[in-house]
């Protein structure tokens, strides 16, 4: 486990400090914020209603259940069992904190878990109508997971397992 953690810390250092640049410093704190994505969620809601009619309510219900299940499993079971400190709360890790450090635990990333759960569910749902959207959904989830490491609130293994 010691070697794994060393690699995890090393990769974190590369992403969080060595790749630091003004564009990503400005973009990623916003990119990882769920409120930034409200227009996308409204578009998806409209898309479901327009393309699926009354079935849209079922899709929306299952979207909510997907996020609630992912969120609860990760935050109530995994994080409380593992209790890994966030990089920004870990005195042994050099961190550039670009957002306020959360008080909760780090492993696994709930942001990553929820966004990958959404990407999986929406890929199955959207994929029926627009197959090309699948790659964009996975890229969207991966970019949010990457942002979590870049801003200093998760280690790479946190987002990898969350995904």
Distance between the termini: 20 Å
Tally of individual helices: 7
Coarse morphology: globular
Parts with pLDDT < 50 across at least 5 consecutive residues: none
Label the structural class.
Answer: mainly alpha
> Can you tell me the number of structural domains?
1
Main β sheet profile: none
Helicity range: 55-70%
- The string of secondary-structure elements, in order, is HHHHHHH
Using only C-alpha atoms, the radius of gyration works out to 17 Å
Structural write-up:
The protein has 7 helices and no strands. The mean pLDDT is 90. 29% of the residues are buried. It is mainly alpha-helical and 163 residues long. It has one domain (2-162). Helix 3 (38-52) runs antiparallel to helix 4.
Keywords summarizing the entry:
mainly alpha, 0% strand, 163 residues, 7 helices
Topology of helices and strands:
Blueprint: H1 2-18, H2 22-31, H3 38-52, H4 55-82, H5 110-126, H6 133-150, H7 156-162
Helix pairs in contact: 2-6, 3-4, 4-5, 5-6, 5-7
Quick rundown:
69% of the residues lie in helices and 0% in strands. It has helices at 2-18, 22-31, 38-52, 55-82, 110-126, 133-150, 156-162.
């Amino acid at each position: 486990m010691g070697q794994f953690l060393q690699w995890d810390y090393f990769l974190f250092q590369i992403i969080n400090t060595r790749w630091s640049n003004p564009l990503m410093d400005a973009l990623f704190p916003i990119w990882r914020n769920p409120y930034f994505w409200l227009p996308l969620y409204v578009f998806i809601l409209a898309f479901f209603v327009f393309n699926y009619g009354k079935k849209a309510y079922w899709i929306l219900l299952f979207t909510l259940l997907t996020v609630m299940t992912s969120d609860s499993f990760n935050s109530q079971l995994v994080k409380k069992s593992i209790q890994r400190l966030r990089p920004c709360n870990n005195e042994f890790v050099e961190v550039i904190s670009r957002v306020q450090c959360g008080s909760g635990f780090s492993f696994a990333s709930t942001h990553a878990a929820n966004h990958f759960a959404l990407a999986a569910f929406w890929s199955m749902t959207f994929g029926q109508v627009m197959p090309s959207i699948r790659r964009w959904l996975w890229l969207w989830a991966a970019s949010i997971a990457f942002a979590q490491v870049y801003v200093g609130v998760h280690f790479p293994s946190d987002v990898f397992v969350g995904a």
